[in-house]
Design brief:
Layout (H helix, E strand, L loop, with lengths): L1 E4 L2 H7 L3 E6 L12 E7 L3 E15 L10 E6 L7 E5 L9 E3 L5 E2 L4 E8 L11 E12 L8
Antiparallel strand pairs: 1-2, 2-10, 3-9, 4-7, 4-8, 4-10, 5-6, 5-9
Length: about 150
């Protein structure tokens, strides 16, 4: 997973502050039919919003056309799909190239994680995927750094 701040022009155009890129190399789960969660820590007072998802390169196991389901769900410990319901990323399925986030954002009152859960399928392991990248445009702010200070 790579996280990078967006330049000012992109921030204005997209309404997002950061780009999170997750590619096939982040998927290391070797057990068949087992999901893998990539996490992002958020601190007390974080405001997080998934603005949009873009499938840059569809996920695929080039040696196995029957590997036809790789889903991404984004949420947290309280709501598994707070930001994105299960969305197909696999080229051999019916991949979704673009999606908007589900919520207007969520302010965390305690430290937590945002969970990027990748689902596999029966008889297949995520580590076998050898191509794929998803770009997530997010708005992240630490509410403790704005407004009146104590």
């Amino acid at each position: 997973m790579n996280i990078s701040p967006l330049p000012p022009a992109d921030r204005t155009a997209l309404g997002a502050t950061h780009l999170i890129s997750i590619d096939h190399e982040d998927l290391t789960e070797t057990t068949n039919n087992t999901a893998q969660t990539v996490t992002l820590a958020v601190v007390d007072g974080s405001l997080f919003q998934l603005v949009a998802m873009r499938l840059v390169i569809p996920f695929q196991d080039a040696d196995d056309a029957a590997f036809n389901s790789t889903t991404l769900t984004i949420g947290d410990g309280d709501d598994a799909d707070r930001y994105l319901a299960a969305t197909q990323l696999n080229v051999n399925g019916t991949e979704i190239d673009y999606a908007a986030g589900l919520s207007v954002g969520y302010a965390y009152n305690a430290a937590d994680t945002v969970d990027f859960a990748f689902g596999s399928m029966s008889g297949k392991a995520l580590a076998d995927i050898d191509t794929g990248e998803v770009a997530l445009y997010v708005r992240v702010a630490d509410l403790n750094h704005f407004g009146p200070h104590q």
